[in-house]
Amino acid sequence: HQDNYRHAMAGNGVDRHLFTLYVISKYLKIDSPFLKEVLGEPWRLSTSQTPHFQMMNIKRDPKLYSAGGGFGPVTDDGYGVSYIIIDDHRIYFHVSSKHSSPKTNSRRFAENISRASREMYELFVPKK
After folding, report:
1. HSE-up of 106 (CA within 13 Å, CB side)?
2. Alpha-carbon distance 106 to 97, whole Å?
3. Strand 79-87 vs strand 45-49: parallel, antiparallel, or unpaired?
4. Is the pTM of this model over 0.85?
5. CB 32 within 8 A of CB 20
6. Higher pLDDT, 54 or 76
7. What CA–CA distance (Å, rounded) separates 35 from 50?
């Protein structure tokens, strides 16, 4: 666990759900070809939810919400994406990538998130 923690702090993180599967597989002494493969892949998409309401009440002070902060990509040709759930109707995303990579484009990635979000909304919210 400590080695994986150090790797995460150095920008070589493992998403927590996969890390949990890894820990359980080690505890149960189960050899997992799936985990060997996915944990050996470069992490081109690193995501995390940013906690938002630790010190404030959005219902009492609706003008005090913030878009929060983000983090950088963990590979030269990857993306760092953080998201904050503001309320039942708003989610903010922060998308970052390196300008030096010809494979990444943060604006395009954010536009794709926005388009996909609208499409999901249309699937679940009936038209009036």
Report:
1. 17
2. 6
3. parallel
4. no
5. no
6. 76
7. 26
Q: Which amino acid is at 43?
A: W
Tens-place pLDDT, residues 22-45: 889 999 999 999 888 888 877 788
DSSP letters along 47-73, please?
A: EEEPP--SS--TTT-GGG---------
Tokens of 123: 């699937």
Most confident of the ranges 45-49, 63-67, 71-75, 95-99: 95-99
Q: Residue 86 burial by CB count (10 A; 0-12/13-18/19+): exposed, middle or buried? A: middle
The residue ranges of DSSP E strands in the chain, in sequence order, are: 45-49, 79-87, 90-97
Question: In the structure encoding, which two tokens stand for residue 52, read together?
Answer: 């938002």
Exposed/middle/buried for residue 99 (C-beta within 10 Å: 0-12, 13-18, 19+) = exposed
Structure tokens of 85? 């759930």
Task: Report the C-alpha gap between 104 and 79 in whole angstroms.
Answer: 7
Please state, in angstroms and rounded to a whole number, the distance separating the CA atoms of residues 93 and 87.
13
